[in-house]
Amino acid sequence: MPAVNESQNHIKYIIVKQSRPEKRDESFGYIISNEEFQTQVRGVYNSYVVYSESFSNMHFLKDINIKNNLIIITITIITFWGYLLFLKSPYFEIVSYWSQENPLKFVLYLFLFKIIGTIWPPLTGGLVTLGAIPFIGWINAYLIDFAGSIVAGIIDYHLGKKYGVWVLNKLFDRGVVDRILKIKVRKNREIETVFLYRVILGSTILEGIYYGSGVIGVTFRNFIIASVLSHMAFGIPQFYIVNNIMSMQNLLFSGILMILGIWLLIKLKNRHFDVLK
After folding, report:
1. Separation CA 193–CA 189 (nearest Å)
2. Which one has a higher pLDDT value, 50 or 155?
3. Which residues contact 66 (CB under 8 A, 6 or more apart)?
4. 174 burial class (0-12, 13-18, 19+ CB within 10 angstroms)?
5. What is the pTM of this model?
């Protein structure tokens, strides 16, 4: 295929072979004319899935990505600030009483919100389950978070596997998508790779790891094993520390545990993941 200039009338696309899922990470791209793209490779072409990116839309996409980041940050800040106000309001006692009188409904609401928040990143499902600690205790709150995260992770995985890069571009900014697509997973190290990414990035782009595992072709069995183990490794200390902070107990031990955890995450990131830099 002859080379052409990357002008606004040309489209860059990557092709991922659909007939061999184990080769989904072997993608490549060309620069072709817009007319040639429309007539030859739009949609599915020769058993390959085609994802396009118009060069003329790059600034528009950048603006959209910045907007999405601001929305996520704003929602997180508002949620946290609102919860602090809620703890000091008379409504706290009302919710506490209602949760004790209707424990099954309360658990169901938390579970569903966690699932929705993990499928659609702008919602912060993790903050809601953390916020439930004063009502049901940190162990119960963690178990709900764990169950909701795994169920949502299964949904994310299959959506990523089915829709590929398209769904990533719809939900995440360009930087997150690029990092996910750079991940190279050896078949004998899938569990280790997903586990480490989930632990290191679990507090920032958990959904990206779930969707990305399906996109890059991680086997479902290894995905589930890694997701379960990594959630326990990251989630249990997180809920334990937050509980201690809320109850103002074991603060020194919690602080030491937090510092050690941050140090370990930094060491793992620097040692294993150049792609994150």
Report:
1. 6
2. 155
3. 173
4. middle
5. 0.67
